[in-house]
Amino acid sequence: MDNNSMEQALKIQIKARKNSLFYKTEFGAFVGSVLTSVIATCERNACDPFHYLESLSIHQTAVKNNPEAWLPWNYRIALQEASMKKTQGQAFPSVAQAA
Questions:
Q1: pTM beyond cutoff 0.85
Q2: What is the CA radius of gyration of the chain?
Q3: CA angle, 82 as apex, 37 and 41 as ends, to 5°?
């Protein structure tokens, strides 16, 4: 029986607890723990944490309108839909853009 995945998950929590001792404020520790959790969730779902956070930043309004579509395990679908909408909007310029 192998428990490597469980040990790896515990290591993330132990590192986060140790790192939280060095934040200057309680809010800073909170932000650090949220980012640690998001990064760990991304890695667990085989997506690049930087690309995920960058996508959230670029598509802020879409994330605000439909946050469950932008979770790490299914954000790629929402990203494809957003890029399709963007390319469809560019393919047919509006009257205001043509003028």
A1: no
A2: 19
A3: 15
